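Example 328.
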Amino acid sequence: MINDHVDHRTVRSALELAVHAPSVHNSQPWRFVLGPRSVHLYADLARWLPATDADGRDLVLSCGILLHHLRIALAAAGIRASVHRIPNPDAPDHLAAVDLLPGPPADADLGLASAILRRRTDRRRYTDWEVPEGFARELAARAAEQGALLRSVSGARERSLVLTAIRDAAAEQEADTAYRTETAVWSGRVADDTGVPAGNLLRDAAGTGAGTARRFAQGLLEQPDSRTDDGAVLLVLGTASDDPLSQLRAGEAASAALLHATELGLATCPLSQPLEVTTTRITIRDAVLGGTLCPQLLLRVGWAPLGPQLKPTPRRPIAQTIERSRDR
Ligand SMILES: Cc1cc2nc3c(=O)[nH]c(=O)nc-3n(C[C@H](O)[C@H](O)[C@H](O)COP(=O)(O)O)c2cc1C
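Predicted structure in complex with flavin mononucleotide:
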């Protein structure tokens, strides 16, 4: 028993659902310490991708997405989570202490929990159907509830600046041998229960969704047709500060927006490449966030093409990520 009402099996099931959270290169950079009344979330620094994510932003964001998935999975199981973020300044890898209390599930949590297993990162070109503005507003409202701003890239000039930034970031990263090696190690046929498998990557990434796709190892996914543009909207998630607490909260906001998009039937793809390079991150900050907020993640959102459903990307066994503690 974790306390009088919450048992370990329920918490373990919630963790099993939560680890379906998306993470950079499916690195799953998290580990958990299960105490008598709490779950502690740690960054797993052995899974950091230094050549891709030099400042660790994608790693903390991934853990923030996991944290929101965990809150939803616990809530759906009737457990209320009281979260202390970055609880110990002397242990920066200790990202959250989640105290567990009994509480009834809310309908909204059940809807989001059921979206966890349906969500996929869809790198294909989407249909040319427009995303209704009301839907984009709903996603922004979900992100705002978690303390981040989610702004649509609007107008031809803004869109062109962002697309150019994505291409410039790709060119800069691909000129770096360490980046190319890291991408090859974490994607394609070599990926099993970590990394991005070939079945979820495009055979021909060039030209996808107006050239937004990161070039991983060659994949097996076919594009639906030969068009180069689609009706996807690009959204930029921003926060007022750029410290690990803001990045963790940005991850929680990304999770809320991604899961709600899934509930609405939309396809989604997180894009971090242009924010991993300082110059293009500044371009996006100035072009989309008025030069003040800090961009944390881009989301491409639209209507999936007709065709086969994407397979889920595997996760490593939960037992590899959990440690027990008697006294925390
Ligand atoms: C912080 C973060 C950054 C990501 N960046 C990219 C990216 O630049 N390009 C991309 O195709 N996918 C990106 N992804 C998606 C991951 O590759 C994906 O979540 C992972 O492979 C697991 O697959 P799933 O989302 O389908 O479960 C990112 C995900 C996160 C959380």
